[in-house]
Design goal:
single chain, alpha+beta, Amidase signature (AS) enzymes, 14 helices
């Protein structure tokens, strides 16, 4: 155990607390890193969250940062803080397989921009966390690295695709993690594992170097839905990480800069809050629903202005249709002639088949759907002229047992009300994704079965600080992160 004082707990301290302890020399970066790797040795095998490590490189960097601090300087707000990154990011000297066996031994020569920025702020990368195959599932398992377990119940999933990162955080293995989100890949694991997660405003943080296989600095695919962002054990750490990774990259940095706009409200009772915590698109299981009801009750008790109902003009099913089309189009940009023929036959048989349409129909359809996407964003932005945040479920259920059966679409999730379609898992996350809005997931307690759950807090575009601040204040009303019993220091 490293020397500590003042109640600093190196196992579950926040990133901000860890950085402060290092600055005040309660603990050195080298000592904190050694302690963190000791916990990985003791606990990681239970959950298989961290699947690649860089101990020599990390320790050399920690020693270097201690030397810098001894001279009265720091690299930034994350100086000496041990962090993990999602396996999907390029990191010099490591593979980024996205779960593909063919990429297992292919090493990237460069580091993704968002990871570079974390390191520039003083963070020390300790390793990479597990993902699902091609980031295309809401469970984390693949043939390269195996299955990640939920720290609250090893028989259950940690979520996906940033399941390894969320599980590592909940188990006290690192202070922060960097993930990505397209269909809830940050928000669902945060919800399942009881940690905080933030899907930033679209294009706020660079996705360069976020790709399967080695990255040589070439431009990646343009993102009209997906983002990269942080997960943490405290909401304030989300802002700390976002401040490090956000802003323009490359030539654009010559023209403009960025900062997190502060929240308009500083007290729960001052927030104007809209919410929908259940809907026929993905009915919420009663055990999770009770926790959402408690959130509403506590917010009312705090004096917040609460309004239930979808914003004017927001039709969930129409948004879902546009979202699904753009999602399928993103994943099917490069198909073989054989696959194209099969999808064309499917569409002729069923003209309402969105996944087939996304492959077959011309670019004009994509443009029309993108125009609809921007129209939905305008409706949300108009709504936020009168409201500060909008609350939604993070998912319809708590973490469910591992299920790797194929095909994926035949899987079901058991709830107190019966079986639900597995494909409904991400539906509550699609609204913020489609409109490009920031969305923070905050833990709100545990079900009767002892499983954590989170609520999704959506804010106006570019106002990420508002949803993060609300998440921070919400912890005072309903509690925040809780250490899983099996991982307490």
């Amino acid at each position: 155990m490293p020397r500590v004082s003042g109640g600093f707990n190196p196992a579950f301290a926040t990133a901000a607390q860890s950085a402060q302890a290092i600055r005040e020399k309660k603990i050195s970066a080298t000592e904190l890193l050694a302690f963190t790797y000791g916990r990985i040795d003791d606990h990681n095998q239970k959950i298989n969250a961290i699947i690649w490590q860089c101990r020599e490189k990390a320790m050399a960097r920690a020693r270097q940062e201690d030397e810098i601090l001894a001279k009265g300087k720091t690299l930034g707000p994350l100086h000496g803080v041990p962090v993990t990154i999602k396996e999907a990011f390029a990191y010099q000297g490591s593979p980024n397989t996205w779960g593909l066996l063919s990429l297992k031994d292919v090493i990237s020569p460069r580091t993704a921009i968002a990871v570079e920025r974390l390191e520039s702020a003083g963070a020390i990368v300790i390793g990479k966390t597990n993902v699902c195959m091609m980031l295309g599932d809401w469970q984390t398992y693949n043939p390269v690295y195996g299955t990640t377990n939920n720290p609250w119940d090893f028989t259950r999933t940690a979520g996906g695709s940033t399941g390894g990162g969320a599980a590592a955080l909940a188990a006290g293995l690192g202070c922060l993690t960097l993930g990505s989100d397209l269909s809830g890949s940050i928000r669902i694991p945060a919800h399942f594992c009881g940690v905080y997660g933030h899907k930033p405003t679209l294009e706020l943080a660079s996705t360069d170097g976020f790709q399967p296989g080695p990255w040589d600095g070439a431009p990646g695919f343009p993102m009209d839905l997906g983002v990269v962002g942080p997960l943490a054990r405290d909401a304030s750490d989300l802002a700390l990480a976002l401040g490090a990774i956000g802003g323009p990259n490359g030539q654009a940095a010559k023209a403009w800069s960025w900062r997190i706009p502060p929240s308009h409200r500083k007290r729960l009772k001052d927030f104007r809050i809209g919410y929908v915590l259940d809907d026929a698109i993905a009915p919420v299981a009663s055990d999770v629903g009770l926790l959402y009801e408690n959130v509403v009750a506590e917010l009312r008790r705090a004096g917040a202005n609460m309004t239930c109902g979808w914003p004017e003009g927001i039709e969930p099913r129409k948004q879902l249709e546009t979202y699904l089309y753009l999602l399928f189009a993103f994943f099917s940009f490069d198909v073989s002639k054989e696959q194209l023929g099969k999808q064309r036959a499917r569409l002729e048989q069923d003209p309402s088949d969105i996944s087939a349409a996304a492959v077959v129909e011309p670019h004009g359809r994509w443009l029309r759907e993108t125009r609809r996407r921007l129209g939905f964003r305008a409706l949300w932005q108009k709504y936020f002229e009168q409201y500060d945040v909008f609350l939604l479920p993070a998912g319809f259920s708590a973490a469910f047992p591992h299920d790797h059966s194929e095909p994926l679409e035949h899987r079901v999730v058991e709830t107190p009300e019966g079986k639900r379609s597995y494909l409904s898992t991400p539906l509550w996350t699609c609204f913020a994704t489609l409109a490009g809005l920031p969305a923070t997931v905050a833990p709100i307690g545990r079900t009767k079965a002892g499983l954590p759950a989170g609520i999704q807090i959506v804010a106006p575009m570019w106002e990420d600080g508002t949803s993060i601040e609300f998440a921070s204040l919400l912890a005072d009303a309903v509690g925040g992160f809780i250490e899983p019993d099996l991982f307490r220091a």
